[in-house]
Structure formats: C-alpha cells, structure tokens
Predict the structure.
Amino acid sequence: MPKTATRQKTETKPTKAATNGNNKPAPKDAPENQTDEPDVYDVKEAQAEFNKRRKSQIASIKKLDKEFLGEMLYQMILGRLFERKCAEVYRMGKIGGFCHLYIGQEAIAVGSMMALKEGDYAITSYRDHVQAMIAGITPEAVLAELYGKATGNVGGKGGSMHMFSKEKGFFGGHGIVGGQIGVGTGMAYAQKYKGTDNVTLCFFGEAAVNQGIFHESLNMAQLWKLPCIYICENNQYGMGTSQKRAMSISNIAKKAEGYAMAGEFVDGMDVMAVREATLRAIERARKDGSPTLLEVRAYRYMGHSMSDPGKYRTTEEIKKYQERDPIILFQDSLKEAKVFTDKDFEDFVAKATEQVDAAVKFADESPFPDESELFTDVFA
Ligand SMILES: Cc1ncc(C[n+]2csc(CCOP(=O)(O)OP(=O)(O)O)c2C)c(N)n1
Ligand SMILES: [Mg+2]
C-alpha cells in the first residue's frame, strides 16, 4: 500500500481539546499519570521507535515464506480498506446502529489469528469485522450483515457487533464489555475437556480489564490450566476515557503475575512481534493447557464508534501513532528484506479494493430479511 494510502483525513479528526483522555479535569487527589509517556507526543521519537522495530521485523520476516507473508500483508490491507468503506457507507446511511472500526489495530488480529491451526477458536468484542474476515467469514457476508441484509453473516439479525461462525471457530462479536472473557474461558475449557490440543484466542479491550469477569476468568484459567490466550488490545481508550484516567496501573501484562500466569507486553504496531508472542503462548497452551495474558499496545485511529465526535484527544497524539502505522512498517520491512516491491503493494491494494467493491455490490443488491424472519431465532 503506498504510504499515503494508509493515511486519510477521516482518521485524524482534528480536535481542539488537549485534555488527557477526557474533557473534564482530573480530580485534585487523582494520582499523577502512572506511565512516563508524555501527553503530547514527539513525532521524531515515534519515528525512532519505528526504525528500531523495522530491524527486528526484518529478522522475523526471514523465517517465513513469501506466500504466507503476502497473505499476512493482504489481510491487513483488506481489513483497512474494508473498514474505510464501512465508514463511507455508514455516512451514506446504508448501515444503521453502532459501528466500531478497527483501523490502526490490524496487526493484532492478523499477527495472532494467522498463527492458529484447524480447530482453534477465537472470540472478541463488538470491534469484530476484521477478526471475522480473518477467521474466514467473507467480506460480502460481513458487509451484508452490517447492512442488516438477509445474506449477512447471521441473516441480518446481529449487525456490526455480532459476527459469528461455529464452522470457522469464530464465536463473536460481543457487546457487553468483558462478557466474552468468560465465554472464551469456557471455550478453552471445552477444548481441554475434549482432550484436544487446540487453543482459544480471547480478545478484549483494555477497559474490559477493569471488569470483574477478567479476574474471575484468569484465576480459573490458571488454576485449571485452560488453553486460553487472553489478548488485551490496549488501544489506550475506553470510549472517551484514556487508560491513564481509568486504571491504577498502566502495565496490564503485569497483572498476569497476580494469577501466576505467563504475561507479556507486545508492540501492537508490529505484526511480527504479535505473531511471535502469540506463537510462544500457543506453544505453552498446546503443551499442558497453560494460559497466557498478552497486552498488545496499539492505537485506534478512528473514534470509539461512528458516532464519536472525538473531542477527548489531540491531532498530535493521533499523528504520533500514524508515524508507526502497522501496515507501512510491515511494507517497509518486506521491501527492505527484498520480499516484495512497490508494484506488489499496488497489486495487493488493487485486489483488496476489488474485493471490497464486490462486497458493497453484494450488500447493496441483497434483500432485507423477510417479515416471517421476525419470529425465528428468538430465545426467550
Ligand atoms: C458492561 C458494559 N459496560 C459498559 C458498556 C458501554 N461501553 C461500550 S464500549 C465501552 C468501552 C470499552 O473499551 P475497551 O474495552 O478498551 O475496548 P475498545 O472499545 O477500546 O476496543 C463501554 C464502556 C458496555 N457495552 N458493557
Ligand atoms: Mg480500548
């Protein structure tokens, strides 16, 4: 993807507010920020980090074959372009209700889910379109679901937050913050109970860590050695509240120690770092069921959902992370490692654009569910 193709105006909504994650001032007795990160970020510092990452990415790239690397990059590009199209058609009124986009976080889903094998499971929150597509649900079925059409992934009845496919091992799409942590733990229990060596990837945001279900699930998973890999996608905001304002400690990976569990911090802008950390966790889980907590730090470029006015953060902050864009970083490394050329990147973008356009055509032309569907799939 050409560098400019990953940056769009809509992804850097300029804001006047320079508050740290909220328009309201912090209470007087609130502790100082727990991290040493500055509130307004230095772009040069971000670029230095970017270059450091590139070196380690190139070393990891050399361990994989070209075809697989191409598929990883393609999935990241497809996810980005698909989500941009969602924003576009949402604004045209084709999608109703909530719509949470994943732009900026693609390296997490691709790096982790593409390390899975047949029979493994994944479950996530409402920010689920990209994970669903990596699991194998087609862009057509995901977009038609967003449109509420009968041809959608779950017949147009779930919408954006509830993609699901038992056959593909993808168990949602959950709207209750943290709710999927308990369900994911249960899925891992089932895998162990059945005597398989399969694992579950359980994704959730950093704000979900403050929910009781996080504690209960991790405690039980370690005690019973359940093959669950808890992937905390730390995009640094829970709606309009920054992590710093809502958590007494900022180092989420460290929380694993409280359960005698393996825990690791991972740079979520680096797809290869995510892959390698996930593979280490998978190896532990397949061996004796040991769970792992991964804190994968990334950044959400868009608002919490399509209705977020985004007044709680600055343009400078968004730009800092875009300097380390996961797709650009990966492309630059692949180019330096002489795996792909600029022409190859253009071809990937063209193919993904075609796939997204086909999904739009499919969703546009699909019918809404029949009225008779109103009373099917209802459990009460
Ligand atoms: C139990 C519960 N409380 C509150 C909400 C409202 N809510 C929806 S998303 C969200 C923020 C969650 O942030 P995070 O877990 O960091 O995930 P992200 O949206 O950043 O991916 C909140 C509070 C909810 N859906 N469920
Ligand atoms: Mg978050």
Remarks:
- The radius of gyration is 20 Å.
